[in-house]
Specification:
binds adenosine-5'-triphosphate, globular, about 600 residues, 5-stranded mixed β-sheet, single chain, 9-stranded mixed β-sheet, binds magnesium ion, alpha+beta
Amino acid sequence: MRWSKSHLFTLKDAPNDAEIPSHKLMARAGMIKKVAPGIYTYGNLALRALRKFENIIRQELDKRGCQEVLMPMVHPAELWQETNRWKEMGDGLLKFKNRNGHDFCLGATHEEVITDYVRKDVKSYRDLPANLYQIQTKYRDEIRPRFGLMRGREFIMKDAYSFDTDEKAALVSYDLMYDAYKAIFDRLGLEYRIVEADAGNIGGSKTNEFQVLADAGEDHLMVCDTCDFAANIEVAPALIKTEKATGAALPMEAFPTPNLKSIGSLSKSLGIPENKLVKTMFFSANDGTDAANPPSKDLKAVAICLAGDDEVNPVKLKNVLGMSNPPLMLTDEEVKKTTGAWPGSCGPVGLTIPVYFDSAIEGFQNFIVGANRDAEHLKNVNIGRDFKVTKFADLRMAKPGHSCPSCQAAGRKGVYKSYRGIEVGHVFYLGTKYSKSMGAMYLTQEGQPLPIEMGCYGIGVSRTVQAAIEQSHDADGIVWPHGITPFDVHMVVLDPDQEEVRQSAEVLYRELQTRGLDVFMDDRAERPGVKFKDADLLGFPIRVNIGGRGLKEGIVEMIPRKTKAMEKVKAEEATEKVLELMQLIRAGKLPTAPAKTTGAAAGAKA
Ligand code: ATP
Ligand code: MG
């Protein structure tokens, strides 16, 4: 591609809404242009990177026997009503009517459509297994689209679905996709972790996320410092337990606590550390996905007790309560109505609602809680004697330093460290959730009808391309991983007004292309400084400077973007040298300094 003939405009400054490096760089490199919040036009460079990534995905999936299909983006409501997700997905699903008044939505994911496709064809065990995938635009009406392609409303996803006769076979399909994902992300050279995760409202029992490690990541991960266990904080077990108290239960007593509304102030005033105090939080166990029945109408209030220095984990709570979405906290007014006191003076004693107790403090005895009367607390409170616990469960957020469950089980001492991650892929074993509700059945060898066992597997294609930039850039611009770089070589033509330079550049441009490289040529009439800056910003793996002065000496300059270690090479050998360098880059063997073949450096080394 010749810059002079292409629609490519780099920017000096990133747009105001670009907060993280990769978003800023993609915008400045002219790769993406915002059309509306979370909705972008991909420029040619972005599209080239996306297509390369898509082809890596295709190669790895096709190799494993998966088949590509393409489903519609517009879905009839009836399919989503069959699984009840028309309601459950809430406003995340963009719904609309066509001219005949029929309800439709834009595809946010395709379990319903693919299950419908498969149930129409599959009759018996002989028609299984199947593993179908597509690469397609999804639409999710995200509340807060941000960070460019990271959290878009419209984005490109690869979604795959497996269909098997039984659980054992379905788990083999799961493992196959797990391996495919490893191969795909390894080929990008990304630093990532495979983590335990929550299934969200997709459903299913076994699930892992593929998380690219980056400070800008929206996900919080707990990663073991000893073994390879890692979990999204949403589900990371928080294992440390207090010892079971063995002393006598003392008589419960009320005492005044005016102006002591927070755990911090209570702890200070009483001289008791926060982790020895018990705090009580209130949530609504009503999913409220039905507009006619919002949580405020039927609170289904529940109380959660945990140590004063711990935080409630809404995803763990959602799973314990069997809800589809994380529960909402009650407002202060709702707490007052439920307990008789304002938040800060509430506790489990005397409540008529269910009380869930964090298992980390199951052993607490003679502890302090709010009295459910304003400005009053109770001391010497004991479980069982003073209030009933509906359920003990791990309800709190894990913290760095907590024991790794896998190490604990194996008698090792590993503990969590905290990382940020970008979720680029997600694999689920679904079981029969969709096949049962949609009647996707097959006949066994014995002629018995059974629901098909399913799995689903997503990769955020557009998100991954941006995540790669988030992980691979420097102060001057993008440093493309070679697997998805829009171009391999960036030729900077200095002195494009000189006929000889233009001709030599043209020859090299064609030669490099003939040898299979994707070549970008900056042939604009711009100053060298401007061109070098743009080359660093666009970040293709190899830059070649070709100009009048160098050609007089018979040389061109070759510069790997990553190390910026310039090497002068003979003009007639330029093609071979670039190919050699590209091979090193692809093999991950780029030397940190250029190979010196002559002169002082070689001598000094000897
Ligand atoms: P998130 O937790 O980030 O909202 P999700 O768990 O809802 O994502 P999945 O349903 O697992 O997403 O979708 C599969 C993949 O699609 C995700 O792993 C992610 O890489 C990508 N993805 C999901 N939502 C978006 C989005 N709004 N913008 C870009 N990519 C997305
Ligand atoms: Mg996910």
